[in-house]
Amino acid sequence: MPLHLFLGDPWGRGRAIAHLKRRLRAAEPDARWRETTLDGEELDLSQLLEALRTTSLFGERPLVHVKRVEKLPGEHAEALLPHLERARGPDVCVILEGDKLDKRGKLYKALKGWGEVQEFAPPTRQELPKLLQALLEERGLALPPQGRRALLEGIEPNPMRLEREVEKLALYARDRQALTLEELEALIFHDRGGRAFSALEALLARRSDALELLRAALEGGEEPTKLFYLWAAEARALLRAKSLKAEGLSSAEIARRTGDFPWRAAKRVKLAEALSSEALIGLIRALHEADVAIKRGEREPEEALWALALAWLGFA
Amino acid sequence: MAHQALYRRWRPQRFSDVVGQPYAVQTLKNAIAQGEIAHAYLFAGPRGTGKTSVARILAKAINCPNPQGGEPCNACPLCEAIARGNALDVVEIDGASNRGIDQIRQLREEVAFRPAEAPYKVYIIDEVHMLTNEAFNALLKTLEEPPPHVVFVFATTEPHKVPPTVLSRCQAFEFKAIPQERIESHLRAVARAEKIRVDEEALRAIARHARGALRDALVLLEQLVAYKGGEPITAQDLYEVLGLPPQETIDRFLEALLNRNGPEALEIVEALAERGRDLELFISEAIHRGRDRLVAALREGGDASTPSPSARAWAALLGQLLELKRELRLAFDKRVVLEVKALEIAGAEGPPAAAATAATAAPAAPEAPEAPEALEPARPAPHTTASASAPASMSTSTPPPADADKPAAPPAPARPQAQATPDVERDLDLEGRWAELLKRARRKKAALYALLAEARPRLEGRTLVVEYAPRFGFHKERLEQPQHFELLKQLVHEVFGPETGLRVGFADSDSDSTTPQASAQAQDERLKEKAELVRRVMGGGPRARGL
């Protein structure tokens, strides 16, 4: 099939495109492809036509890869159609990719009729552990279960980030094939908190090491304002877990409903059970008040955070 | 040869010279040794932790023709050119001043060209989080399909401002704040090599004040070298250079508050003010120190739900200091506010101070008054809203009166003490209530608070006289305007009781119009009076101790 449209999650479509190119080359090992990459946002139609029509002196076949297809101006998309229709022979391959494309648009409909359309949804948190396992196996690396959880919780649910992290861990591990929790903690680049999460978890559970972790997070360069946001988000997540539990849902069902990792949902349910709804609502309110005080210039964010932590722990 | 700053002379030239980042360094060395070089790196972390230095070492290591186990040789012309900053193929860009789309477009055009002399063209973009959204989008296109001869290194102190689309295309490393003991040992090595005479206490103090940033520590050390001109450096010199109070003073202040030793707290404030110290900075340092003490007390034992008396005492003090800092931020006369609040804290109800003092390795504290739990608060505590048993109602701000329209119950009178005379009680009561009135005024109307901040209160029978020095005539006139006067009257009723009258007038003399010496003397007298009041009420006496 000479025409391909790949839409959706960049990691999924990136892998699929790489696979397609490998397949093309493997199908006819003697055939050579001349690859031209173009950007939909800056596309000059003449460049595309040139890439499609120019006959190579060395008999290379044209492989045209248009990225960011959703950014193609409407008139270009329409003007493109007759050329794409003609470029359907076996000696040419056109790959178009983008985040999304209007399914009612002429370009989408035409490509759907003439070629192959593949759409990729970003993996859910339920699917990420399996993906991590596959990436680790590719690299021949082993992580303890707690380490895997720490990695998945530490980064955004983004497979590309996960791949980069695994690549980095494998480089560090070199031939050892296994990493300790301490090494993981030091190596993971936390998108959402990291040490901040440990501090918030300890604070919410009113653990004795909460203030020490909070201090470590702040001294390690965590933004106090980010901690506010994370703390409020965590309090809201606990409230939600608590209400779903009250509806009679199990931890696994709550994980599915909230799109959370199963182990984290279970942890939240357990923590939420130890706190009253009033306490959590009060915490969110206090966070809001502290936020207002910061914005009015009455308080430094770090000081407001400490005052709030002391109050939450029952010291104030 | 031109003078080169210490931190530049001691900038690491090899991965093994980098202090405090073993994991990032090892990973990069392995990557180079294995030939697995990523096309984009992100180095994130606090300032002075080695991000740019590691980026430069990386640039050398990947381009060096004779790398040794992932390290650059530092001897070839390329390594030398990169170290000097004049290599054609290593481009350092300040993201803060080249943040627009045009600069990034230009960069995109440049990356297409092959490197001039090195195998890789390395672009180090510092403070990358400062790029505009459009610039990031333009950069993203290059990152999606980078030419094989290009390596980007982004450095940032604020990684959360880097778009996820960019972040996900980088191999990202967190540069941690460098532990104090590592900074200390590095400073020791630098001092030895540079023949700088510096005592151990000073090294510790510099490392502590650098707060994880090695560059800051080296800059501080160099400042001290310049300040002392070859003489041995002590910790005291650091405090002088930074305008900070010595740690010992902070400890004495905290212990004075914990031990209810108001006079000593006042003495410390007075000495700081006389030396022109920044009082807000002093309280910030005290908060930091209090935080460390609290964490240490919690670590020593107990649960956050059932903390030890020592931890509870430090936590209460920390809460009060945080509230004090909040008030200082808005205060016109920081010294007065600090003095009043210090007296309040020293007189506030709390757990036994002895327990807290015992938990620290602090200098001997004055004898603590007995059974402080039995004391009633002299006036409303600085932060009284949060409740351990009812976190739902927790709040960090001092709450407004339960019902703004309804006069709140006046604050509790000064606590009864065996030796307290009625005059002393009345004076303490007036000060406390006036402070409370100011607090409420600030919440209700900042303009009223600003007018009252220059006034002094006096009780004439059942009438509160708000007095101004003659030079504050404008303030007096404004306060007498109905919109201010009526609100003040309402506050006076709330705080002093509904039967209290109100009058605004001029004081007999304007102490500020006298000579500076006389003014300082008057101020001194006032402080001594305050200290005497506290001494008479609480027992004990001021201790003569220099800063």
CATH architecture grouping of the largest domain in chain A: 3-Layer(aba) Sandwich
Strand content of chain A: 5-15%
In CATH terms, what is the fold-level topology of the largest domain in chain A? Rossmann fold
Number of strands of chain A: 5
> Helix/strand/pairing class of chain B, anyone?
alpha/beta
If you compute it from the alpha carbons, what radius of gyration of chain A comes out, rounded to the nearest whole angstrom?
26 Å
**SSE-based structural type of chain A:** alpha/beta
What is the string of SSEs of chain B from the N terminus onward?
A: HHEHHEHEHEHEHHHHHHHHHHHHEEHHEH
Approximate helicity band of chain B = 40-55%
Biggest sheet descriptor of chain A: 5 strands, parallel
Mean pLDDT metric of chain A: 88
Overall structural domain count of chain A: 3
Number of helical regions of chain A: 15
Kindly report the name of the CATH homologous superfamily of the largest domain in chain A. P-loop containing nucleotide triphosphate hydrolases
Q: What are the low-pLDDT stretches of chain A, counting only 5+ consecutive residues below 50?
A: none
User: Low-confidence stretches of chain B at least 5 residues in length (pLDDT < 50)?
Assistant: 349-393, 395-422, 510-516, 537-547
Largest chain-chain contact? A-B, 62 and 69 residues
